[in-house]
Amino acid sequence: MKVEMSHMTWDEVKDAIAEEKMVIVPTGATEAHGPHMPTDTDTHQAEWMAIELAKRVKAVVAPPLAYGISKTFEHFPGTISLSIPIYQEVVYEVGSALIKQGFKHLLFLNGNRPNGTSNDAVARRLIDDHDQEYDFMVTAVSYWEPGAQKIHELRRSGVGGMGHGGEFETSFQLATRPDLVHMDRLEGVYAPLVGWDLVAPVIPSRTYRRRPTPDTNHASIFGDPHEASAETGKEMLEAALNGLESMIKELQPAYEERK
Ligand SMILES: [Zn+2]
């Protein structure tokens, strides 16, 4: 089943709209992910999840946003960040275009933690601006959230080991494109557990601190990549996908009858 909108003609997209298929917009980032992973890590992860989820729930996937909110790592070469207002405008424009074309369910599937609160704000704004004219709903979620409990149970690192470039993301890359991961470059790299985590139960507040720079020998990692493996990665991806699929089932039970 072809799910990528970028590989479809415009009338194939028109058919998808007529069939009331959900459209998934993956939101990624271009940023440093340690000495061992490529800068498109988050974009790849959001798009990979979007495509696999779309196959399961008969949705389509819009082209991913490769630029997100990455100011945390802007001192590291290869990081390209949008400012928050511009990022929100871009997501808003993409969402508005899809709503005006007739899509009835938009899913912002996020792969870079700092984009998450902005995606929520944009989802709210799309409803506030367009709900009198168009009949639609918008869902905003980070791909690890619905399956977080299950992913947490599969981990080897302690709480704080799965922030950024740590066990979870490294396992994801090892499971899906190991040729781009350089585990040997982690030798001697100090990557301590951090005060936050993508999937562990944490205090529900966010604290913003001074950002890391390469000249303090920071590895651009928050968490512990040493515990990563392709095997756990595969199990974590399955857990994440199952969580997302159940979420869609609740929001949009009609997808099961679709071809
Ligand atoms: Zn990441």
Give your account of this protein's structure:
With 259 residues, the protein is an alpha/beta fold. It has one domain: Rossmann fold (3-Layer(aba) Sandwich), CATH 3.40.50. Helices cover 38% and strands 9% of the residues. It is built from seven helices and six strands. It has helices at 10-18, 41-57, 84-101, 115-130, 148-154, 167-176, 230-251, and strands at 23-27, 60-61, 105-110, 137-142, 162-164, 222-223. The chain has a four-stranded parallel β-sheet, with helices on both faces. The chain has a two-stranded antiparallel sheet with strand order 5-6. Strand 1 (23-27), helix 2 and strand 2 form a beta-alpha-beta unit. The protein is globular and about 55 Å long. The N and C termini lie close together (10 Å). The model has no long low-confidence stretch (mean pLDDT 95). Residues 33, 41-42, 112, 164, 169 line the site of zinc ion.
CATH class: Alpha Beta
Biggest sheet strand order reads: 2-1-3-4
Number of helices: 7
Structural class: alpha/beta
Question: Low-confidence stretches at least 5 residues in length (pLDDT < 50)?
Answer: none
Q: Quick check: average pLDDT?
A: 95
Roughly how much helix do the residues carry, as a percent range?
25-40%
CATH-assigned fold name = Rossmann fold
Number of domains: 1
Shape: globular
